[in-house]
Every structure is written in C-alpha cells, then in structure tokens.
Amino acid sequence: MPDKIPKKFLNMYYKQGYRIVGKHQHSAVKICRWTKESLRHDRVCFKQKWYGIESHRCLQCTVSLSCLNRCVYCWRTFHPIFEKEMSKKAIDEPSEIIDELIKAQRLLLTGFKGNEKADKKKWGEAQNPTNAALSLIGDSILYPRFSELLEEFHKRKFSTFLVTKGTSPEKLKILEVEPTNLYISLCAPDEETYMKIDNPIVKDGWKRMNESLELMKSFGCRKILRLTLVKGLNMKNPEKYAKLILKTNCDFVETKGFMWVGESQKRLPMNSMPYHEEIMEFAKKLSEFTGYEIKDEFKPSRVVLLTKK
Ligand code: SF4
Questions:
Q1: Contacts of 277 (CB under 8 A, 6+ apart)
Q2: Which of 49, 178, 190, 253 is within CB 3.0–4.6 Å of 306 for a Cys-Cys bond?
Q3: What is the DSSP string of 25-66?
Q4: What average pLDDT does the structure give for the chain?
Q5: How buried is residue 270: exposed, middle or buried, by Cβ count under 10 Å (0-12/13-18/19+)?
C-alpha cells in the first residue's frame, strides 16, 4: 500500500464516514450503525447479545486498508493500491494507532452529545471504548505488528474481534497473541465458487484459506466461522461447507445474509440478499451435516447462530 493515500480516496472515505488515522494512513475507524442504534434507541447488535460486548463502546476499525481479496459482496471500493501486502517499514506503532482511533471515534461521536434522543450515560461511556472490532474494511492480519497491537488492546482491557479472510495463513501461524474472537470468513463450499466470490489476488487463495481453516483448531480463543450468504451464488452444497466447518473445530458458525450496501450494489442485484427465512433453512441443513445445533437468530441482521454441541 502507498505510504500516502491519494486525495480522491481520502475524500471518498471521509464522505462515507471513515476516518483514516496515523502517519502512514493504513488504519481507519467508522461509527458502526449499531453503536448509533444503541445510543439512540437502546437497540444492540447480535455480538452484544451473543458474545457480551457493548455495542455503544465498540471501535469498528481496521489497521490495514489492504486486502488480498475482492469479494463480490464487499461494500468497499476496489483499487490496486489497496491490494498488496503491507510494507514492514511504512507502518505506525500499535499504541499510537489505538490512541488515534479512539481520538477519531470521540470526534465522530461529538454530534450525539447534543442529540436529545441519545442516552447521555451511554454517550459518556462511549468515550472509552472496550471492544475493538477489527472488521471495518481490509484484512487487519496484514498489519506486520498485529500481535503487539492485540497485546496493547488487551493491556487497555479491550476485547478484540479479528475478522480475516484466511488468505494469509502464514500470518495466523506466527500470531503470538490471540484475539478474544477469531473469525474466519468462509464464503464458498468449493474452489470454483470461491474464485467467483472471493476473487483473491493471489493464485492459491483456496489452498491458503483451507490452510487457515486447519490452523483455526489450534487456537484457544473463541473461534467463529462467518458464512456470508449470497442468493444464487453460494447458498448451496451444505454438505461441502460441513466438511470445511468440521476441519476447524470452531465454537460457533454464523450464517449471515449478504447486505446490498455500498459498492456491492454495482456488482450484485438487490435480490441477491437472502430473506431471513432462507438463511434459517440453510442453517438447518448445515446443522444436519455438521451436528452443530441452532442456538439463536437475529432477524435485524439476518443471521442465525449455530453452536458446537
Ligand atoms: S461488534 Fe460489530 S456490529 Fe457490533 S457494534 Fe461492533 S462493529 Fe458494530
């Protein structure tokens, strides 16, 4: 990734509500819809419901705008400058990044102080986030000092969610610190579908993703597979998904409907979004083939949770 992001991208991201922070501009934060919902209407996200984080104290962020995939359902804009491994030199310090992310989040939350609908006590608490959802855009595992970053977050009493595409198993292998929640995004039952959906910029993407799935079982933290389901593309062959899921010994499987937002609207038709009922049907089939049981559902986000028995 270039040391400095071209102005047109900075402006584009700024308008979309992102704040890019740090001297080397590879980290970003954006207020999550559920943080706003929690402040205004006391409605929280399914991760608060299922994993105990506080939506109003969540830092939706990334430390790598780079990603080695161009998933057809992704909300971000694709551009070659964001499709490279990160350099080991032109990067910011873990503690500086966290300071900058928190500062930017506080600035983004300023408007809620004067909002009569916003819960003032929650707004006060939101100034000190307690969860880092490293899932905003890009793949944060590409940040060369990721273990140190996790260590720094945990030192500050943050829980950490890492969502990775699994395209960098070598980075998972060398992790010295585990996140609170390790998410691997599994969006295809076979290589042909994977190449169509995940569209990796590396030739051996499928092999790498499978290596990451194998590695997952060696982690002691909470392990979650996230299936983003796109109607007409990857809602098929539950028996093949089951084989991949069982490799990981994961604790949970989230089957979640694709959301027609951002740049994905230029790549997929609106009716690619499955209905919640269709997600539930697919989850039931997965349950049959994996032996995992359906634990809960969250209709606002079209997601069904399966848990290991
Ligand atoms: S965990 Fe995810 S959905 Fe929930 S508030 Fe944080 S970023 Fe939003």
A1: none
A2: 253
A3: --EEE---HHHHHHHHH----HHHHHH---GGGEEEEES---
A4: 96
A5: exposed
Nearest CA among 224, 203, 196 for reference residue 70: 196
Model confidence, pTM: 0.95
Q: Per DSSP, what are the bridge partners of residue 134?
A: 61, 162
Q: Which domains does the chain have, with CATH numbers?
A: 7-307 (3.20.20.70)
243 SS3 class? helix
Q: Which residues pair with 303 in a beta bridge?
A: 256, 298
**Does the structure show a pLDDT above 60 at 2?**
no
Question: Which atom from ligand 1 is nearest to the alpha carbon of 301?
Answer: 3
Cα angle vertex 191, ends 223, 175, to 5°? 35
- Give residue ranges with CB within 6 A of ligand 1: 32, 34-35, 45, 47, 53, 55, 58, 60, 133
Measure 133 CA to ligand 1 centroid, in angstroms: 6
Q: Give the C-alpha separation, 61 to 59, whole Å.
A: 6
Q: CB under 8 Å to 194, separation ≥6 — which residues?
A: 187, 188, 200, 205, 206, 209
